[in-house]
Amino acid sequence: MELLDFSCFKTGERRLDVLQKLQKYALPVVIYGTGRFARSAAEFLQDNDVRIKCFVDKDMYWHEGKRVSISSREYPCQNIEGTFSIFEDYVVVYGFNDAAEFEDSKQHFVGCKDFVYIDGYRGHWMSDKFLQVHQSILKNLYDSLKDEESKRVMKAYLYARYTGDIWPLGDLRQDCSYDWKLLAIDQQDVFLDGGAYTGDTIAELINSGGARRILAFEPDAKNLVKLLRSCSADILARVNVYPYALWSKDTVMCFDEIGTWASFVSDEGKTEVRTLSLDNHECFSDVSVVKMDIEGSELEALRGMYRLIKQNKPRLAIRVYHNNKDIVEIFLFLKQFGYDFYLRQHAFSVEETTLYAI
Questions:
Q1: What CA–CA distances, in Å, run from 122 to 170, 293, 320?
Q2: Closest by alpha carbon to 45, among 16, 87, 66?
Q3: What would the pLDDT profile of 286-333 be if each residue is shown by its tens digit?
Q4: 3-state class of 324 per DSSP?
Q5: How far is CA 116 from the centre of its chain?
Q6: Phi/psi at 331 (5° precision)
Q7: How many CB atoms lie within 10 A of CB 65?
Q8: How far apart are CA 141 and CA 222, in angstroms?
Q9: Phi then psi for 213, rounded to 5 degrees?
Q10: Which residues have a Cβ under 8 Å from the Cβ of 145 and sit 6 or more positions away?
Q11: What pTM value is reported for the model?
Q12: What is the gyration radius of the CA atoms in the chain, in angstroms?
C-alpha cells in the first residue's frame, strides 16, 4: 500500500518481535504498572504462555498487600520506591501507555535482563484488512492534510497501530495538550470543552490567552468535583459547567463512571447520564471553537452539532485515537463542510492523536 510505505523504518512487527523475545528468554516477567495498559499487556502475555512473576507500582498507587487479578489469576504487587528486589534473572515490561518516561524508568530495575515496551491493548491494533478496506479514504485524508507535519503524523500513527512500534510517532509529539496556534483562540471566541475532565485543558487555554466564554462538559461526577476545586474563582467566572455527555440526541444513557479520564458512555455502565445534542439548545449557537476528547463518543457528538458546524464553521480539535475507525469516520463526516485538515500528536503513545478542522 503506497500510503503506508514503512520501508524507511520498519524492522518487523514490534508487538510480535517483543513477544518472541520474551518467549525465547523464558524468564519471569515483572510488569511495571497496574493500570489498564499494564493489565492489557499482562493478558496478552498470559494468553501467549509468558510467565508473569509480579507487578510493580509507583508508591503513590501502592498499598500493603496489593494484588492484581488477570483472568482469574492473582499476582503480588511490590512498590517501586520501597524495598523492591528480584533475586533471579527477570525481564521488565513497561506497563504505561505513554512511553515518555520509558528511559528514565529503567534505573529502577538495575540488573534486569531486558526492559521492553509492549502494547497489548487490542483496541490499538490495526490489521492489514482494515488498511486495505479503508485504503481509499485514508489516501483521501492524507491528500487533504495541509502540511507536512500532518502527513508525517498520519504515517507514523498508522504504522504504530499496525506494528505496535510507537517510537516514530512519539518523536512527533507536541508538549501541549492541543495546538493552540492552529486553533488561534482570542477573546472573541466561545470555547466548548467536551470532556473537561479536571480542568487541565481549561488551565492550558487560559495560559495561552483564553476565550470570552468557556463551556465545560464533564459527565463524570467525581471529575466534576475535581474540576470545580482546581479552578480559581476568576477562572470559574468565565466557565459554564455542564454535567452532561455530548451525543447526537437528548436522552439518558448508561455511563461507566470511574473518576478518571477514561469514563465513557457504555451499555455496561452502572450509572446513568443525561446526554445533549448541541443543535437542540439555542444557548450553544455562538460556539466558535470545539475541543473533544470524550472516549469514543466524538462522532455521535459531532452528529449532534451538524447545524452548528454548518452555520458557524467552528474550529475543531477532535481526538481520533479511541478506535481504528475514528480517523476514517470523523474525517468523512467533517469533509462535507469544506474544512482544512491538520493532524497532530500530543503524547508518546498511540493516544491523544488529534484531527484539526480549521
A1: 19, 20, 16
A2: 16
A3: 999 999 999 889 999 999 999 999 999 999 999 999 999 999 999 999
A4: coil
A5: 21
A6: -60, -45
A7: 7
A8: 37
A9: -150, 145
A10: 151, 154, 341, 342, 343
A11: 0.91
A12: 22
